[in-house]
Amino acid sequence: MRSFIQCIVICLMGCIQTVAQDTLVLNRKQCEAIFLKNNLELLAGRLKIDEAEARLLQAKLWPNPTLSVDEVNLWTTGKGTNNLNYFGDGLPPLSGNDWKNQQISVELEQLVRTAGKRKKMMAMEEVSVAMAAEYLEDLLRNLKREFRNNLTELQYLQMYREVYEKEASSVAKLVMAYGRQVEQGNIGKGEYIRLKALGLEIAGEINRLERESNKVQKELKVLMRLPVQISLVLDDDDFVPEIKKLKEIHPEYVLDMASGHQPELKLAKLDKTYSDRNYAYEHAMRVPDITFKAGYDRGGNFMLDFVGFGFSMDLPVFDRNQGNIKAARVGQEQAGLLLQQKELEVRSGVMLAYNDLVSAVSFLEDIDPAYGDELEALLESYTRNFRERNISMLEYLDFLETYLQNRNIILESIKTTNEKLEDLQFEIGKDID
After folding, report:
1. What are the residues facing 70 on neighbouring strands?
2. Of 35, 206, 230, 400, whose Cβ has the fewest other Cβ atoms within 10 Å?
3. Given a cut of 70, is residue 20 above it in pLDDT?
4. How many CB atoms lie within 10 A of CB 201?
5. Strand partners, 309
6. How many CA atoms lie within 13 A of 3 on its CB side?
7. 63: Cβ contacts below 8 Å, ≥ 6 apart
8. Which InterPro entries is this protein grouped with (predicted)?
9. What is the number of H-type helices and E-type strands within the chain?
10. Do β-strands 104-112 and 231-234 pair in parallel, antiparallel, or remain unpaired?
């Protein structure tokens, strides 16, 4: 029997250990460090920069020379032109007595780009590298807001669930106490049934919060690339923002930050730069490129071993790249207008986010920090007085509803402030120090 009990204890300890291993308790900074290291979208985005840098490397390369081997007769005859004798003694053999009267022509060509086309193409690809970096910043900006808001949501759900779990514990004790009183015939069964109904309502709310928490955890685990069996628990210490720090933020400061860090605005500026450089490139395409040639011909000329040089180029008679130049000029104008539009959008978005944050901070600041403790003390007092039948059930339930609403208002105000801060940082494109 003793061995059987020991086996049960060992199994239970194993189960407890497994549950503990599957629960991961982290704070927000630790979560963000894992997110920045493991997120697959960010890893893929970084490869876009490598891809753009590879294109820049390709633009730096010179065109390959072209080697042509021509006029090779794979066999020789004893007669020359028109089946007559060769001029003179014919062609000497290439090697010893082999390959007599063998003819061959070799030509080497090198394309040289004129009007600085290569440098202009490199300048365009440099802008593409910078744009790839800004696309990554924009991706990071979007993922950060999504990730941090999910952290805030999970913290809110966990803390709100704790409120209900604490209330569920108190109601469970009241149900047990009232059950004994009903059995003893001291009170009617109506109040007992009402308490049980209240317990069921609270349990249902806890279940709802649990489902919402699981949904948020699923999003966080995907963003952090955590194992699916992990249960993520967030520390509550960093849930409340620093009100004093947030009140020191000024509109001029955030507008200046946005002008230098907002990825969408920087992309619009880079697009304008790219359009300018594309116009310069297309304008240079009016000038034709030159191909230099060097050739060797054995037996194909009046000279036995002929070496000659030459060049070729297009004559810009009909096509002077007029259409592409005009299209590039239109692209410049379009990019300039879009840049002005983006500047207006960014400034408007920053001010809207700033005003929303100011409103959220003002509301949170108006809540007395000690009010939460006062609510807890009142809840204990009301629960004790109800248990001792100093107050009616109606009074107790009325206060309980007020308690839960006010607890939710406090948590919601903190959650909203965190979200509005993230909205402002999203519009700026940089975290506020």
Report:
1. 105
2. 230
3. no
4. 13
5. 294
6. 0
7. 110, 111, 113
8. MdtP/NodT-like
9. 11, 6
10. unpaired
In this prediction, residue 293 has a pLDDT band, given cuts at 50, 70 and 90, of very high
* Helix 263-284, helix 117-184: angle, nearest 10: 160
Residue 398, pLDDT > 80, answer yes
- Report the distance separating Cα 269 and Cα 286, nearest Å: 27
| Least confident window among 93-102, 269-278, 333-342, 351-360 | 93-102
pLDDT of 125 higher than 80: yes
Q: What is the DSSP letter of 114?
A: -
Closest by Cα among 349, 363, 364, 360 to 420:
360
Q: How many CB atoms lie within 10 A of CB 147?
A: 22
Name the more confident of 350 and 93: 350
Q: Is the pLDDT of residue 19 over 80?
A: no
Taking the C-alpha atoms of residue 346 and residue 138, their distance in angstroms, rounded to an integer, is 14
Q: Mean pLDDT over all residues of the chain?
A: 87
Name the pLDDT band for 95 (thresholds 50, 70, 90): low
Q: Tell me the pLDDT tens digit for each residue of 98-111.
A: 666 677 899 999 99
Lowest mean pLDDT among 78-92, 98-112, 197-211, 402-416: 78-92
Q: How far is CA 348 from CA 266, 354, 355, 359, 384, in A?
A: 16, 10, 11, 17, 54
Token pair 């507008």 is at which residue?
A: 255
Alpha-carbon span 35 to 42, nearest angstrom = 9
Q: Going by DSSP bridges, is the β-strand pair 231-234/23-26 parallel, antiparallel, or unpaired?
A: parallel
**In what order do the strands lie in the sheet containing 290-298?**
66-70, 104-112, 290-298, 305-313
What topology does CATH give the domain 30-73+102-428? Answer: Outer membrane efflux proteins (OEP) (1.20.1600)
User: At residue 194, does pLDDT exceed 70?
Assistant: yes
Can you tell me the distance from the alpha carbon of 368 to that of 365, in angstroms, rounded to the nearest whole number? 7
Per the rule left: phi > 0, alpha: psi between -120 and 50, beta: everything else, 345 is alpha
How large is the C-alpha radius of gyration of the chain?
A: 40
- Residue 261 to residue 425: CA distance in whole angstroms: 10
Short-list 376, 407, 357, CA closest to 242? 357
Give the Cα separation of 11 and 13 in Å (integer).
5
What pLDDT, on a 0 to 100 scale, did the predictor assign at position 2?
A: 39
Q: Tell me if 275 sits within 8 A of 332, measured CB to CB.
A: yes
Token pair of 156, please? 């809110």
